[in-house]
Amino acid sequence: MGRKWNNIKEKKASKDANTARIYAKFGREVYVAAKQGEPDPESNQALKVVLERAKTYSVPKAIIDRAIEKAKGGSEENYDELRYEGFGPSGAMVIVDTLTNNVNRTAAEVRSAFNKNGGNMGVSGSVTYMFDATAVIGMEGKSADEVLELLMEADIDVRDVLEEDEAVIVYAEPDQFHAVQNVFKDAGITEFTVAELTMLPQNEVELPADAQAQFEKLIDALEDLEDVQQVYHNVDLGE
């Protein structure tokens, strides 16, 4: 797939280590998922995905419970899920997913982040066609061959299975997320290093050193925005 998923996640975790930002973003995402359906992950697949992701980022149970209780309580707080697309330095492609209760504010802040960091906003569809929606599930304690065998026995055909650092990462269709996880859970695997529904670029690009430094500032500026949940891009930032 061209991307070292564990290295990407490690960098993000390091960046967020001393802040409550990542917890706030998950709290909002859990609330929205719980409010849109039943506040029970067994009957609400969207909520189940969010909770699986939250576990891999060690989000405290108290934050998750608070968000679910808020949804159960009939809170009138509503959020719109919006996706913005744009270009960074040297034409790098960027996708920004947001949850917002103020569309005008979010649009202005995202546009400003692009403009101040050598980028510009694109129209809907200008970038996403170069990315694939993908389920990414990783675990330790199994080899790639063992994981492939488990999937074959369950008659599940995935996109790829790769050994990355000390983990095995499975790349699958988004609608296979729960099926793949259930195969591993049935085999006694209960902890996952990654459990994401994400957007992966079909091809990565390398930027000159000066453009890469500016691009990283753009990504940081976008991720720092309160309403931004996820930022995806096609730049190889190295390890």
UniProtKB/TrEMBL annotation:
<keyword id="KW-0238">DNA-binding</keyword>
<keyword id="KW-0804">Transcription</keyword>
<keyword id="KW-0805">Transcription regulation</keyword>
<keyword id="KW-0963">Cytoplasm</keyword>
<dbReference type="InterPro" id="IPR017856">
    <property type="entry name" value="Integrase-like_N"/>
</dbReference>
<dbReference type="InterPro" id="IPR026562">
    <property type="entry name" value="Transcrip_reg_TACO1_YeeN"/>
</dbReference>
<comment type="similarity">
    <text>Belongs to the TACO1 family. YeeN subfamily.</text>
</comment>
<dbReference type="Pfam" id="PF20772">
    <property type="entry name" value="TACO1_YebC_N"/>
</dbReference>
<dbReference type="InterPro" id="IPR049083">
    <property type="entry name" value="TACO1_YebC_N"/>
</dbReference>
<feature type="domain" description="TACO1/YebC-like second and third">
    <location>
        <begin position="79"/>
        <end position="235"/>
    </location>
</feature>
<dbReference type="InterPro" id="IPR002876">
    <property type="entry name" value="Transcrip_reg_TACO1-like"/>
</dbReference>
<dbReference type="InterPro" id="IPR026564">
    <property type="entry name" value="Transcrip_reg_TACO1-like_dom3"/>
</dbReference>
<dbReference type="GO" id="GO:0003677">
    <property type="term" value="F:DNA binding"/>
</dbReference>
<dbReference type="Pfam" id="PF01709">
    <property type="entry name" value="Transcrip_reg"/>
</dbReference>
<dbReference type="InterPro" id="IPR048300">
    <property type="entry name" value="TACO1_YebC-like_2nd/3rd_dom"/>
</dbReference>
<protein>
    <recommendedName>
        <fullName>Probable transcriptional regulatory protein P6P90_09370</fullName>
    </recommendedName>
</protein>
<dbReference type="InterPro" id="IPR029072">
    <property type="entry name" value="YebC-like"/>
</dbReference>
<feature type="domain" description="TACO1/YebC-like N-terminal">
    <location>
        <begin position="3"/>
        <end position="74"/>
    </location>
</feature>
